[in-house]
Amino acid sequence: MNISKYEQRTLHALAQGGAIHHRKNEKGDIVEIDCINRDGWRLADCTLHVFKKLRRRHFIRSENSGPYRITREGLSAVRAQLDNR
């Protein structure tokens, strides 16, 4: 599956326990997002465009208006990366 470098970085951060927090406007449209990794750092590669592509492909999902998390489809799409810990 074709996944861009930015989508891959975002999915990898989410697979390790991160979340995407969103803000909506008065009409209910998502206008701002923050991708936070498990350590509390903000991921700059996760833009609104990347977020919309991941959501359209069903790689991320929100439950009960909570933060967006990775789905099983997202886990199967992400490639393994070395973790520099």
Q: How would the blueprint of this fold be written?
A:
Layout: H1 5-15, E1 19-24, E2 30-36, H2 48-56, E3 60-62, E4 68-70, H3 72-77
Antiparallel strand pairs: 1-2, 3-4
Describe the structure.
With 85 residues, this protein is an alpha+beta fold. It has one domain (5-77). The protein is built from three helices and four strands. The strands form two sheets. The chain has a two-stranded antiparallel ribbon with strand order 1-2. Strands 3-4 form a two-stranded antiparallel sheet. Strand 1 and strand 2 (30-36) form a beta hairpin. The termini are far apart. It holds the Pfam family YjhX_toxin. InterPro entries: YjhX_toxin. Belongs to the UPF0386 family. This is UPF0386 protein ATE48_11535. It comes from Candidatus Viadribacter manganicus.
Q: Mean pLDDT, rounded to whole units?
A: 91
Sum up the overall morphology in one term.
Answer: globular
Order of helices and strands: HEEHEEH
Tell me the number of structural domains: 1
Beta-strand percentage range: 15-25%
The end-to-end distance, rounded to whole angstroms, is 28 Å
Tally of individual helices: 3
Instruction: Work out the number of β strands.
Output: 4
Structural class: alpha+beta
Spatial strand arrangement across the major sheet: 1-2
The low-confidence parts are none
Helix-residue proportion:
25-40%
